[in-house]
Design goal:
This protein has helices at about 10-25, 55-65, 75-85, 85-100, 100-105, 110-135, and strands at about 30-35, 40. The protein has one domain (about 10-135). The chain is mostly helical.
């Protein structure tokens, strides 16, 4: 690494890898940036809702996520039984709700926990990438 930081092509490769991972796993609502010291920052795009209110389904999803361990059996089965959603639809809705201000207002502890987990996953990815650069 030179005095000005990593070569721009290395940063472009890292951004592409992280972007693919973020899109594949639904970890962010919008674009992200990689700062000079290689910290990932997800740039959350504002949610566009006509009335700013949560739908009944969204409220049920947030309440379920806040207490799913109280349900018997595996989480995927509980999602199907209590919400009548497939696991993939549930997680898609949950990722969307993480960046919804109305969801934060309705279930702040759950939304903050989900955001914290997302940030930790992104930091782990960045750490793996940084470790890969020093070896190569």
């Amino acid at each position: 690494m030179g005095p000005g930081g990593p070569h721009p092509s290395v940063l472009a490769d890292i951004r592409a890898d992280i972007g693919a991972y973020v899109r594949k796993n639904g970890l962010g609502a919008g674009p992200f940036e990689l700062s000079r010291n290689r910290e990932i920052r997800v740039c959350v795009t504002p949610c566009i809702y006509a009335c700013g209110m949560l739908k009944e389904r969204d409220i049920r999803i947030l309440e379920f996520e806040g207490s799913w361990w109280l349900y018997p059996g595996p989480k995927d089965r509980a999602i199907q039984e209590y919400l009548r959603l497939s696991a993939s639809r549930y997680y898609q809705a949950l990722r969307r709700l993480m960046d919804d201000p109305a969801a934060l207002e309705h279930a702040p502890l759950t939304v903050r926990r989900l955001r914290r987990q997302r940030t930790q996953r992104l930091e782990q990815i960045a750490a793996r990438i940084r470790g890969g650069d020093s070896a190569g």
